[in-house]
């Protein structure tokens, strides 16, 4: 993922939290805010409750890889913030991808197949 596809600043996170809509399942919370930009942007939040640094970085890698694989199907002009819940640390890549796809379908960010 390119730098311009990431949400890093606290101000941008707060804007998506206030204006966007949230959707959740047991492992992830997703905030979606449709915007004007040409590409989607992704912000990640994985707290220390999820686990140690190794576990948190693994969860973030899984989320980024899932978004890379789904980038053609996602809404192109939206901001996404993914918050990982502690249960996300127990999943392998395929389970976390399936869980993220599920919550993105609930959010209507992914078309149902």
UniProtKB/TrEMBL annotation:
<keyword id="KW-0540">Nuclease</keyword>
<dbReference type="Pfam" id="PF00825">
    <property type="entry name" value="Ribonuclease_P"/>
</dbReference>
<dbReference type="InterPro" id="IPR020568">
    <property type="entry name" value="Ribosomal_Su5_D2-typ_SF"/>
</dbReference>
<protein>
    <recommendedName>
        <fullName>Ribonuclease P protein component</fullName>
        <ecNumber>3.1.26.5</ecNumber>
    </recommendedName>
</protein>
<dbReference type="InterPro" id="IPR000100">
    <property type="entry name" value="RNase_P"/>
</dbReference>
<dbReference type="InterPro" id="IPR020539">
    <property type="entry name" value="RNase_P_CS"/>
</dbReference>
<comment type="subunit">
    <text>Consists of a catalytic RNA component (M1 or rnpB) and a protein subunit.</text>
</comment>
<comment type="function">
    <text>RNaseP catalyzes the removal of the 5'-leader sequence from pre-tRNA to produce the mature 5'-terminus. It can also cleave other RNA substrates such as 4.5S RNA. The protein component plays an auxiliary but essential role in vivo by binding to the 5'-leader sequence and broadening the substrate specificity of the ribozyme.</text>
</comment>
<keyword id="KW-0378">Hydrolase</keyword>
<comment type="similarity">
    <text>Belongs to the RnpA family.</text>
</comment>
<dbReference type="GO" id="GO:0004526">
    <property type="term" value="F:ribonuclease P activity"/>
</dbReference>
<dbReference type="InterPro" id="IPR014721">
    <property type="entry name" value="Ribsml_uS5_D2-typ_fold_subgr"/>
</dbReference>
<keyword id="KW-0255">Endonuclease</keyword>
<keyword id="KW-0819">tRNA processing</keyword>
<keyword id="KW-0694">RNA-binding</keyword>
């Amino acid at each position: 993922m390119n730098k311009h596809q990431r949400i890093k600043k606290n101000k941008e996170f707060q804007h998506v939290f206030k204006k966007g809509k949230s959707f959740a399942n047991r492992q992830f919370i997703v905030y979606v805010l449709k915007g004007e930009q040409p590409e989607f942007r992704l912000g990640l939040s994985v707290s220390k409750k999820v686990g140690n640094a190794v576990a948190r970085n693994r969860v973030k890698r899984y989320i980024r890889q899932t978004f890379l694989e789904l980038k053609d199907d996602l809404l192109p002009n939206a901001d996404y913030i993914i918050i990982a819940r502690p249960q996300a640390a127990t999943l392998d890549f395929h389970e976390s991808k399936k869980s993220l796809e599920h919550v993105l379908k609930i959010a209507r960010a992914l078309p149902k197949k």
